[in-house]
Amino acid sequence: MIETLRNRFALPGVHFHQHGRLVVMELTNSQGSASITTMGATVLGYTPQGGDELIWVSETAHFDGTRPVRGGIPICWPWFGAHPNDSAQKAHGFARHLPWEIESVTVEDDITRAILRLQADEATRRIWPHDFVLTLTVTLGETLRLDLTAENRDDETWQLSEALHSYFRVTDARDIAIEGLEGLNYWDKQQGGIRGIQSTLLRARPPIDRVFFDHQGKAVIEDHARRIVVEKAGSATTVVWNPGPEGVRAFDDMSDDAWREMLCVETANAIDNGYALRPGERHTLSATIRTEKILARR
Questions:
Q1: Catalytic residue numbers?
Q2: Cβ proximity of 164 and 73 under 8 Å
Q3: Which pLDDT score, from 0 to 100, does residue 85 have?
Q4: 110: number of CA atoms within 13 Å, CB side?
Q5: In sequence order, what are the residues at sequence separation of 6 or more whose Cβ sits closer than 8 angstroms to the Cβ of residue 94?
Q6: What's the whole-model pTM score?
Q7: DSSP assignment of 167-215, as one string?
Q8: What does the pLDDT look like over 258-294, one tens digit per residue?
Q9: What's the CA gap between 221 and 172, in Å, rounded?
Q10: Of 19, 142, 184, 192, which has the fewest beta carbons less than 10 angstroms from its beta carbon?
Q11: What is the pLDDT of residue 298?
């Protein structure tokens, strides 16, 4: 399979390799580098030119194909969190558990673009009995942009929730600040599902699991010497998550101290911001990731 992909996409800065049992596509150009596995169309890394890695992947993640990789940017679709009415279903939907097809890769000037595709088949219909096409477009340029497009090819309307579940690598998650969420209503799972208003700058003191509603703007992680900026479109929800020192013990694919070096700031449409997609309609959920330097304070 690797050789087939190498021959099919023999382009500058496009490489394929095997990590465990997973196929990984590496994209490199003058603007930086990114890596994607066909398992769940999960972005595993993004390093802007001259910068440091932005995406966190657990050192003890599984690459055997039996479960999604812990970290990266998994795709939660067609539901976010627990299934709305079937507790036997896997959390965050099935898209991140399945192999995706690489539809195309293009290289033009300083922009590299890869499109991956998942569509309904017998396996997906056993889980979710609807016809769909789901594509993820990953664009590596001055920024890293992800566009997740869902197309309803069914004859009935769906109710969807979704997320680009971004794990960011940070210097220290303790008391880290996230700008852009002030004034928003939220639902806090960590605190038993209470609702409130984020009246001040959010400082994530893990554990945290907070869903912010009706957020159309950007979120900015203040990570010591850099600002990680997440801009979005087609999204009305932002989720901030870190399991903290106790919660991390529930995950056998994270070391006990891994929570300190990661923070999830997720581009989503979830809970109050789930939406209906009618037959023939498409919806695109987009996230654009970049960094800014923090100027030294006098």
A1: 165, 266
A2: yes
A3: 86
A4: 9
A5: 77, 78, 124, 127, 128
A6: 0.97
A7: EEE-S--TTEEEES-TT-EEEETTTTSEEEE--S-EEE-SSEEEEEES-
A8: 999 999 999 999 999 999 999 999 999 999 999 998 7
A9: 11
A10: 192
A11: 39
